[in-house]
Amino acid sequence: MSLDAVLSRIDADLDQATARLFDLLRIPSISTDPAYDADVARAAQWLADELTGLGFDASVRPTTGHPMVVAHGGEGPHVLFYGHYDVQPVDPLSLWDRDPFDPEIQDTPKGKVIRARGAVDDKGQLMTFIEACRAWKAETGTLPARVTFFFEGEEESGSPSLVPFLKANADELRADIALICDTGMFDDTTPAICTQLRGMVREEITITGPKVDLHSGMFGGIAMNPIRAMTKVLAAMHDDTGRIAIPHFYDGVPDLAPELKAQWDGLGFDEAAFLGAVGLSLPAGEQGYSGLEMVWSRPTAEINGIWGGYTGAGFKTVLPSQAHAKVSFRLVGTQDPAAISRNFRQWVQDQLPPDCTVTFAELGGDPASVMNTDHPAFAVARAALSQEWPGDAAYVGGGGSIPVAGHFQTILGMDSLLAGFGKDDDAMHSPNEKYDLSSFHHGIRAWARVLGGLA
Amino acid sequence: MSLDAVLSRIDADLDQATARLFDLLRIPSISTDPAYDADVARAAQWLADELTGLGFDASVRPTTGHPMVVAHGGEGPHVLFYGHYDVQPVDPLSLWDRDPFDPEIQDTPKGKVIRARGAVDDKGQLMTFIEACRAWKAETGTLPARVTFFFEGEEESGSPSLVPFLKANADELRADIALICDTGMFDDTTPAICTQLRGMVREEITITGPKVDLHSGMFGGIAMNPIRAMTKVLAAMHDDTGRIAIPHFYDGVPDLAPELKAQWDGLGFDEAAFLGAVGLSLPAGEQGYSGLEMVWSRPTAEINGIWGGYTGAGFKTVLPSQAHAKVSFRLVGTQDPAAISRNFRQWVQDQLPPDCTVTFAELGGDPASVMNTDHPAFAVARAALSQEWPGDAAYVGGGGSIPVAGHFQTILGMDSLLAGFGKDDDAMHSPNEKYDLSSFHHGIRAWARVLGGLA
């Protein structure tokens, strides 16, 4: 069977695959710092050359920012593979144990790791798919699927060119499904496929009381204090059980499917360790939900910032004219960002004491992404990943958002499958970033299985 | 009767008195700006020379900052007269209609005014007493009371030398009562004697939740947000009737004496105009109390500042480690600053949700000042002021604090009587400061009556 041969080739070729990854890791493609613009361009060209060498029709495609890399090859079911070749800055350099752009294999108590900026995010991850394709081509002379590669170089700097590029090249990029490799394992032994990502609504509130700042000696007691009004409003946003009190807020929040809940409950999520790592001990979300539900499948209302009055050293007895807060909502299911925003604003209005007015800044929002797990690629990927690690692959949620998945859906009408092999201790975005050599190795093998399974 | 002669002399001498005040107003004695140090010293010397010329034993007394002026003269009941000869800066100069240090008499729809920096605060006010003494000396050759003048030159820059100077010169400065002329009329026709000033406790609260800032995508929903905890605590500080919910907070808050309440109710305080001027319409204090009670005789709890999380432009989905607030309490009666602070801190502790800790900064406090209206000077002053203006002199409260009155009580064991002739539209601390010529004129006459009445 050709898959077995492909897998054996991957095993035999691991040192060379690692050497190729090191070539890419040596390019300091920091997208947010213009001093590295030439390096970012060099990384794009390196990828295009690599893919051309594998027989793909590859090109570096300019944008008004950093270039995209697009490549096509193979025949059969059509998948688009997405990754990003840019990396985070390395500051503070003093916290790195070695040059971030001089990768090496290191032995650790938990096994061999590839140490370098970009090892996990996302160069090591994207190379797993390239190496899987290489092995198929080398062993069989062809690919078991039609593959489009799509790499961007601005993921770590806000992806300003992504949406325009997708819109301008929709027909070229649209595939049966997108494979996005920029996520992690559930734990060391349990691979994961992310099947839902929370959406977000951002609000900035300004409550105005008196039209000028007042002296609390003259006006304290008789004048409305907008900070007090702000605390009253925000304190009422959650009831005593952690439930969000805004009317209609839970419209579109689905009950967690029993089979998914059972699977999550079976994951053995160590809530105490998760919270203990950041100095907490008790889950602070809605009563009656598990910790994983709180971060994956339940919506939230968070105050991300608050300010008003005098905030410097010492004291000033000001009774301020205004108080401000930034509030965000994480959305799930089919919660409608526009409706959440509208209902929140009306609710704030309704809570306001007399003599206070409120204004809101337009900061936008995005709905939750719920993956179409009925797409056949999910069963293929789940089986593939389960064969490479001790634990069965889990369908997990993501508390944050991965905008590219939403853009693929919105602009291309294309479902996404998110699978990646990062670990919690990979120090993503931090000094001494690493990628487990086993993640790289089994990641390549897993994608080789997926490619075979799709055929 | 000699008082009538003294008053006639004051009327006849008004132009010369105004000219003398103009000499003092021409000295730019801005205490907070070292560029004006020589001018501050010149103003002190000008006062000492003026008092020496009137037969007082006057001297300029150095401190580590700006000098004090002390002068003694006369025999009989002993009063200490306090004022300050320094002034506020004049920025922004562009908003002044003329040179702030080139005083002139201007006609306005409401009568003649003396326009200059320091006209009301406090050079015009302190000169009323000097001119009253001058008239008594000129008419009778003596003073009807023993008078000690005590002028400072640092009132507008925090009075750093005041307490040390009082402690070092307590025996010299102690009198039967202090007369403090740095306050205002109740309204255009009603003179006022301030008989109570609110105290203050300052608190700065820091609530800590997670030990580091968290990403709300990863932790939102499960992790305690300290801003949310802060809003819950502060929102509970007032109940729905505006009453402060901290245990024992009202210990030491006296009921307003019925005669004082009746007098205040009779003042015709225009609550709507007072609030309307700052864009408000409804009193926001405790239900069941009048507007004047809210600012004069009721204690308060105000949030003077709040901050935490991301407060810059745009949005950052941080779930912060800490939230901060500055809270102040205005105290009345015999409320104990130490007990208020202790009870507040315990109450905050008791409100905290699990996994939150709180720390407090030591910012200190001062009790309320309640004047001893049984001192005979009060009846004398009330009668004197009532004879100079259409309305009877009112005993009023002050919402803020005038620290020197507290220091006189604490350090010298001396009661104070606060009477001044400023108006709400005097633009104190602002461009185009003025003092009504009628305030200057009747202020001199009122103090002449007080001096006569004390004898």
Q: How would you explain this protein's 3D organization?
A:
Chain A has 455 residues and is of the alpha+beta class. Chain A folds into two domains: 2-197 and 368-454, Zn peptidases (Aminopeptidase); 199-255 and 272-284 and 293-366, Alpha-Beta Plaits. Chain A has helices at 2-12, 14-25, 37-53, 119-140, 162-168, 170-173, 216-219, 226-235, 258-265, 271-276, 291-296, 337-351, 376-388, 403-412, 437-454, and strands spanning 57-61, 68-73, 78-84, 104-108, 111-115, 146-152, 177-180, 192-197, 199-208, 214-215, 300-309, 318-319, 322-331, 357-366, 369-370, 394-398, 416-420, 434-436. In chain A, the strands form four sheets. In chain A, strands 1, 2, 3, 6, 7, 8, 15, 16 and 17 form a nine-stranded mixed beta sheet that branches. Chain A has a four-stranded antiparallel beta sheet with strand order 11-13-9-14, covered by helices on one side. Chain A has a three-stranded antiparallel beta sheet with strand order 4-5-18. The longest helix of chain A has 22 residues, at 119-140. The model of chain A has no long low-confidence stretch (mean pLDDT 96). The interface between A and B is large, with 77 and 77 residues.
